[in-house]
Structure formats: structure tokens, C-alpha cells
Design goal:
It is a single chain. This protein is about 45% helix and about 10% strand. By secondary structure, it is α+β, with helices and mostly antiparallel strands. Helix 6 packs across helix 8 and helix 7 packs across helix 8. It binds glutamine (GLN). Glutamine (GLN) binds next to loops.
């Protein structure tokens, strides 16, 4: 394989003319303020290499990428019992859709659509005050990224708390089916703060390392067992990009999780953890340029879970 640093620099240069492609999320007012011309790529290889280019050291709102970390934490607390409250099937619907919930008795299709992630946050909240649960999530993310400087952006969390009518609808609806253990505003407080975690591409690539390395961090610490890492990757592949998960698997061929902040975390098991960021989104709410960058990276490295 050619030099990885050179390779990502080439991809960056090739995509530079398309800077600003897509549309920045504006339904969360605070996210609408982000400069659409940002673009960064960071790669952490399992053999210890660290590569980055562009705006890879600038923090952005990780939004739904946080759902991977929330799920990891909730599975650690509740194990397989969590699957009684949330499914493992792709939804084929948008990330904030409510339609399936009625037919499926308030059990969200998977932990990566908003409804599923709200249930996961509700599970993390069990036995805690919202502040403690939020603190636990942040501590966990700092631990797996090995970086105590990671913070939650309070302006983003408040912005969503004020305008997140759909998420309130989802939470209220699930509560009516008995699938939310806490009042919706408490579970959503945890959810909005989790989504408002700010990270750089480099921090995100490091945080995702354990997923590509059989559950272990760079320093050897076992975050989760190997089989759980595999399963989280399986869910990222099938559900990580909502109703564009099939297209992402087709184009990139790696487990990935997107966020409306324009970030994507992708995992090449046994090879690398990759984070990209470009705020312009496609119509499914996934980073336009970020997806393109990952497609080129997968093509040129040969990384794929499909051989
Ligand atoms: N796809 C996303 O990143 C959505 C997360 C966002 N916080 C929301 O709830 O709408």
C-alpha cells in the first residue's frame, strides 16, 4: 500500500474543489453557524500509525456518532437485556422518523436512529441523575479517546433542547408504550448532551480504535469483549447511515456512523479507525464530502469487510 499520509493528502487535494458541497444542518440553530468549508481526515492504524490532513484538529459536534459510544456503555451496563427495548434491524427510514414506532409498539428498530438512541440514553440514566449519566458518558468517551480535554458544547445541547420537537415527540410516544423509564425531558437531557460532545477527527479516530481492534485500546486496555466489538460494527454497517446504510456499505464497505455535524467514524477491522469531517450533508443527513473521502480511501487501501 502506498504511504498512507500521502494517500489521504491526495484524497484531500482531489476533493478540495468540492469543498462546501451538501447542506449544513440548520434544524439545530447552533449547527447552522458552522463554516461549511471545513474538511478533515484522520486515520489511526491498528499497527500504531497516526495520520491526518486538513481540519483534523478542529473540534466539531459529533452528534449521532455519539450513539456508538452510548450503545457501548449501555451494553456494558445492561448486556443483552437492552435488546428487549431496542431492535437490531435497519429502519429504511430517516434518522428522526416516528412512523414505525406505532406499528412496533414503541420499540425502535435500532439503537442508531434517534428513537433508539433515546432509549439507550434512558437505559444509561437508570439509577442516576441526568447530570451523573452525562458525566459518565463524557468520562467514557475521554477514556476511550485517551484524552481528558474532550468536552460537551453547552450551546449545542441547549439549542437542541429548545428546538428538538421531534425528539420530544419520539420520547413521549415511547413513554406512552412504556419503553421509557424516565420522564422524556430527563432522558432527552442525556441524549442532547451526548450528541453535543465536541471532538476533533483525530480524537474521534482514536476513540473508535477499540472497535477495529477486537475491543482493545491502543494501550491494550480491553474496553469490551471482541464479540461485542464485532456486533457493534455489524450494527454500524447495517444501521449507521439510516436509510442510506445500504448505499454506504455499497460505496465504502466498512462499518460507519455518521452525525449531522458532518462527521463520520468508519472502522476497518484489523486495519484502522478513520474519522472524517465536512459539515455539508446529503439528503439523508450524512456528510457528502466525508462519504466521498471514505469511498476513495477504501478503494485505494483495499479496506473492506467484504474481502
Ligand atoms: N443524525 C444525527 O446526527 C441526529 C442527532 C441530533 N442530535 C438529533 O437528534 O436530531
Amino acid at each position: 500500500m502506498p504511504n498512507l499520509q500521502q494517500l489521504i493528502e491526495n484524497i484531500y487535494a482531489e476533493l478540495l474543489p468540492q469543498l462546501g458541497a451538501g447542506k449544513v444542518a440548520d434544524y439545530i440553530p447552533e449547527l447552522a453557524k458552522v463554516n461549511p468549508r471545513k474538511f478533515g481526515i484522520a486515520v489511526e492504524t491498528i499497527d500504531g500509525g497516526s495520520y491526518f490532513v486538513g481540519d483534523a484538529e478542529e473540534s466539531f459536534s459529533i452528534q449521532s456518532i455519539s450513539k456508538v459510544f452510548g450503545l457501548t456503555l449501555a451494553l456494558g451496563k445492561h448486556g443483552d437485556a437492552l435488546w428487549r427495548r431496542v431492535g437490531r434491524e435497519p429502519s429504511g427510514s430517516s434518522f428522526n422518523s416516528i412512523v414505525q414506532l406505532e406499528h412496533e409498539n414503541g420499540i425502535p428498530r435500532n439503537p442508531f436512529i434517534n428513537a433508539g438512541a433515546i432509549v439507550v440514553c434512558d437505559a444509561i440514566l437508570a439509577g442516576h441523575r441526568p447530570k451523573e449519566a452525562i458525566g459518565e458518558i463524557l468520562r467514557f468517551v475521554r477514556q476511550i479517546a485517551d484524552d481528558d480535554t474532550i468536552v460537551i458544547d453547552p450551546a449545542v445541547a441547549q439549542s437542541e433542547q429548545k428546538t428538538g420537537y421531534r425528539n420530544f415527540a419520539l420520547a413521549n410516544y415511547m413513554r406512552s408504550f412504556g419503553n421509557l423509564g424516565h420522564p422524556p425531558d430527563l432522558a432527552l437531557g442525556v441524549y442532547f448532551h451526548q450528541c453535543a460532545i465536541s471532538m476533533t477527527c483525530r480524537q474521534l479516530a482514536r476513540a473508535g480504535f477499540f472497535l477495529g481492534n477486537g475491543g482493545r485500546m491502543q494501550n491494550g486496555f480491553a474496553v469490551i469483549p471482541r464479540e461485542r466489538a464485532r456486533r457493534i460494527c455489524a450494527l454500524m454497517l447495517t444501521c449507521g447511515h439510516y436509510d442510506a446504510s445500504g448505499d454506504f456499505a455499497f460505496r465504502v464497505g466498512l462499518p460507519g456512523k455518521s452525525g449531522v455535524g458532518g462527521g463520520i467514524l468508519a472502522v476497518a477491522p484489523g486495519e484502522a479507525s478513520v474519522a472524517v469531517w465536512s459539515p455539508g450533508l446529503n439528503r439523508y443527513g450524512n456528510s457528502e464530502l466525508g462519504t466521498h473521502a471514505l469511498q476513495l480511501l477504501a478503494e485505494r487501501t483495499g479496506w473492506s469487510v467484504f474481502g
